[in-house]
Amino acid sequence: MVSRRQVLGTIGGAALVGTAGCVDFVTGEGLFYESAQATVSEEALNETGYAEDEIDSFGIDESVGAFGISRTVEITNWQAEYERTVDIDGIDSFFEAGSIDEITEAPYSFVAVSTPQVSVFGQELNPVGNMDAAELIDRVEGQYDGIANIEEREEVDATVLDENTTLTRFEAEASVAGIEEFPIIIEITEAVESEDDLVLTVATYPDLEEFGENLVEDNPGAEESATLRGGVEHPQ
Fold this sequence. Notes:
Blueprint: H1 4-15, H2 23-27, E1 31-34, E2 39-40, H3 42-48, E3 51-66, E4 69-87, E5 105-116, E6 119-120, E7 123-124, H4 133-140, E8 147-160, E9 163-176, E10 179-189, E11 192-194, E12 197-206, H5 221-230, E13 232-233
Parallel strand pairs: 1-4
Antiparallel strand pairs: 2-13, 3-4, 4-5, 5-12, 6-7, 8-9, 9-10, 10-12, 11-12
Helix pairs in contact: 1-4, 3-5
């Protein structure tokens, strides 16, 4: 399945247009912004069977100008990646003979992302805070190989860090074990404010409904993604 780093790197790089200012901008100093890490609690991980894959930062450098002055703005974002696999013996029978050797496991992933709110003279300039999930997913599609044919399925209410937000569920196709059209679900929450940061989540898992039957007894899917969202932690 497409990697979480690809998904979040695309969202971060395409969506964050960092501009900032005040004294440092005028005096010629560089501008630096870094979010606090958003992670998932051990309790939620234990309940769902997910495990930490990687917690890492990704940076964005922007050259911005105002009043005839040009400065570099450095923005550091954090993403915490978690994953699990689920046995799905027999799923290979749904694909063309010879298209794969064998598929025995399906990947599930969950990512919590934090990005700093960036402002100049009191005006918020980080567009993530004003983007809905459809706009965020538009930044993903077509930006890299491995995912295609993204279509919105539904919008539902969700909670992240005790804040109400909107979760949008998308259908898509990804490259998995040599299969170019493996059906998946992508869930993206709109960003919520937490201290000086914005926090959003992205979950991906196989769309087993597309195979016409439930191939596993323990299919994490939407229910476990909700548990992980409820377990997101960020400094308060």
